[in-house]
Amino acid sequence: MPRSKNKVASHRRRKRVLEKAKGYFGARSKVYTVAKNSVEKGLTHAYKDRRQKKRVYRSLWITRINAAARLNNTSYSKLIDALNKKNIDINRKVLSDLAYNNLPAFNEIVKFALA
């Protein structure tokens, strides 16, 4: 009895990997064994970076808040402490957006928190 290799499933599997490798350079998008490694590594980085993105954005927000706070003769840590003491619940994303797009509104919040 001849050995069954299930050509349909293996062809689909290879096709799926090569489809994900579309746009890669050279053999990475053409040769299955090379493409398989590239796709696997790419998916690993994608998983890791979805988590890192959150850290990177929070860091950006803090930098923006600090820069705008220093225009008001205070620092980021003093501003956040003052906001917490006054029970002003405003997250860093919104505060950063105000500092970046609407500086007068941010200045009002700083004055109210530090007063």
Structural class: mainly alpha
> In angstroms, what separates the terminal alpha carbons?
88 Å
Shape: rod-shaped
DSSP summary, beta strand count: 0
User: How would you spell out the order of helices and strands?
Assistant: HHHHHH
Q: Any idea of the CATH topology? A: c-terminal domain of poly(a) binding protein
How would a textbook summarize the main sheet? Answer: none
Report the helical percentage. Answer: over 70%
What is the CATH domain class?
A: Mainly Alpha
Question: For the residues shown, what is the average pLDDT?
Answer: 95
Which second-level CATH architecture applies? Orthogonal Bundle
Rg from alpha-carbon coordinates: 26 Å
CATH superfamily: Ribosomal protein L20, C-terminal domain
Structure in a nutshell:
The radius of gyration is 26 Å and the shape is rod-shaped. It is 78% helix and 0% strand. The chain is an all-alpha fold.
Structure commentary:
This protein is mainly alpha-helical. Helices cover 78% and strands 0% of the residues. It has a single domain, classed as Ribosomal protein L20, C-terminal domain (c-terminal domain of poly(a) binding protein, Orthogonal Bundle). The protein has helices spanning 7-20, 27-30, 32-71, 76-85, 92-101, 103-114.
